[in-house]
Write the structure tokens for this entry.
Amino acid sequence: MSRPKLSWSDLAGARVGVWGLGREGHANLRKLLALGVEPVLVDDQPSAATLSIPGGRRVLATGDGGLAALLRCDVVVKTPGLSRYRPEVARLTELGIPVVGGLGLWLAEADLRRVLVVTGTKGKSTTSSMTGHLLAGLGYRCMLGGNIGAPPYDPAEDGDFDYWVIEVSSYQATDVPCSPPVVAVTSLHPDHLDWHGGVEQYYRDKLSACSQPGAELTVANGDSDLLRERVGLLGPRVEWIREDDEPGADWMEPLGLPGRHNRRNALIARRCLAALGVPGSVDDARLRAAAVGYQPLPSRLAPVGTVGGVTFVDDSLSTNVLPTLAALDAFPGRRIALIVGGQDRGIDYAPLAAGVLARRAPTYVLTLPDSGPRIRAQFEAAQIEAAPMEAAGFAGVTDCRDLDDAVPAGFGWARPDGVVLLSPAAPSFGRFRDYRDRGDAFARAVHELSR
């Protein structure tokens, strides 16, 4: 996909449309106002968008005059949540109007030698946050931005930084016209298929940051068969990082992150720092000291508490199969009641069923709406196909109405010393505001058990 290489400074004096007024859209507006540009504002749901627009500026609805206004612009700055495959984007492009993203505009004029881009279906947030923490621990000023933090171009976030660690989602990647020399890829698994229009297009979009102009090295998850099969999408040079690399290394222990996948994420972070030429990144003692004090991300394998000997773990940020399987692997040999299900995006849950049935330790699955019945059907089909010994640890699957039902059911089964793991393999939307709201509901249900 060809992307116009425009920068923010190119937009001074232009007629600019801001399309989409979520978190990043507001940053786009602030940046344009700082450049002296008064843009046209368009949103699919303007009534919600206008609540926090400064100065009483008018916001047009996309379907009610908004698109027509965008068609009169020189450039349209699109928020990442709006799919690049929408027909409105095609119409703008056909008329020669560049449709760009704020992150891409920033990268086009940033000092890319001091920028690390981190992408991947899952693990990118953890890897980005630990990389930023290690940089700070080594004595450098680092901005953690992009999908995980503030847009790096937002005037509200001005600062003097030595490095930028930028998490890039598949949505944002479609708007990126160039790459820094070093890009990290943590994982690959089907996701966001409705936005991208299919699994292979998702893979191409997700990995596109590895091969844009400027890319030199991709530090990639060597344990991923899907990534190895698509090495041609990973840019001019690839370095594979596996869970078992650096045997005996313990510098990452102060990070306090469970699971072999997080060991690999830490090794990816280290290799990226070394590739950027960061002093201290090849010194185990300095890295171990830098790792101290790391705060894990909320709802990512976060312990909620222990009740009656049972450990409760919030992994609400897991929204597809890959991180849920990794979460199970983080508790080898433990008896686990796994709570899964949420918004149904049509994800294939056969790999989840296969992974759970292959687990030797006892595992009981409790499903939640809306995808719960479809998940249960996949488990039932997998049980029929599995040899008896292959599913020896599988204790069955039960549909639950909500977390208030699933948590006590999991607790009763996991006693006396097991784990109740909320790792939904599905988004939270529809029944919760976001993954944090779902994690909070889980914590409340756990609290009720201890009353």
